[in-house]
Amino acid sequence: MSTLDLFEGLQTPTQAIESLAQQACVLRGFALPFVEALLPALDSICAAAPFRHMVTPGGFSMSVALTNCGRLGWTSDRSGYRYSAIDPTTEQPWPALPTSFLALATAAADAAGFPDFVPDACLINRYQPGARMSLHQDKDERDYAWPIISVSLGIPATFLFGGHHRADKAQRVPLFHGDVVVWGGEDRLRYHGVAPIREALHSVLGAQRINLTFRKAG
Ligand code: SIN
Ligand code: FE2
């Protein structure tokens, strides 16, 4: 039995699927059974690869702090956005993708209709009140055939899920601790973002929202 099998019973019932588009949905509470395993793993990752505010190619410091785990990590600096196997802060490889992270990502992808998804990158975003993420497309990955799996933990957020043009009107989707958003296929390149986070306190995570974004980048 592989360690992944240990998480097999943890899938939540599928009736809590909310459709956002043809191939995009919210799996309400899907991550809740995994949280107890995720949080200590998250602590170890953050100890080895601390959260930092990266600079955009335009020269602005991002309001969201980030780190990564997995073979590839998403980075930004004055010369652009890219995936790198080396953490530019520690100059070490990113921490490995924990089994609990992998189990959650593959189970969520399966539940949303994307079988065989094996992520090689997990971007970990930390939002403190006031932090936001402007509308963007995820397009630094090599193969858009794979979906994006986005896990929300901690205080609530309003996720903005737009169209294929920046100016398209975006749906405002409230996201809570344990929710997972999946988008792929024809919806893979939709613009999306996060409205400024409101002051709040989560019983376990305090005044922050943690987002785990799983991708097959390489
Ligand atoms: C992202 O698009 O990288 C993050 C989305 C989120 O925080 O929900
Ligand atoms: Fe994104």
From TrEMBL:
Catalytic activity from the UniProt record: a methylated nucleobase within DNA + 2-oxoglutarate + O2 = a nucleobase within DNA + formaldehyde + succinate + CO2
Keywords from the UniProt entry: Dioxygenase, DNA damage, DNA repair, Iron, Metal-binding, Methyltransferase, Oxidoreductase, Transferase
Amino acids binding 2-oxoglutarate: 125-127, 209-215
EC number(s) stated in the UniProt entry for this protein: 1.14.11.33
Cofactor: Fe(2+)
Single GO MF annotation: methyltransferase activity
Protein family membership: Belongs to the alkB family.
NCBIfam families: PRK15401.1
Name of the protein this chain belongs to: Alpha-ketoglutarate-dependent dioxygenase AlkB
